[in-house]
Task: structure prediction
Amino acid sequence: MIIAVCTVPFLVQGMLMVVDEFYFHRERGLSQWEVLGHPLDTITVACALCFLLVAKPSVVNLFIFGALSTFSCLFVTKDEFVHQEACKPLEHWLHAVLFLLHPVVFFAAGVLWWQGEGLYPLRVQTGVVALFGLYQLLYWRKRAA
Result:
């Protein structure tokens, strides 16, 4: 049951990211800042999730994961100064929802890791995040060239 509950934030975030990426970003295009910044956002998420795959649950590792997660949650807000000019209101709203989900996703990942039951969903989520980051890097670099 815990696995099912904890994977819901992954799925919701994934669906919203698809809308953001394949509707809003393609509609307006990305600035050079975003072409670099969005893959960096994804790397911060991937690093936190990768840590869970290699670290054993312990209090020290929980604090390390908390620090990685907190850094990611703050880092992803860096583009909002650019988005202020570039985005329509509905995209701003979507970003706000994604900002709310970001720590929820990390909390769910941490619960799965701590319980020791959810390594498969964590591996899948980490793989999806890594592939999405690779897509962002390759697609937007090619479009910007």
Q: What stands out?
A: The mean pLDDT is 94.
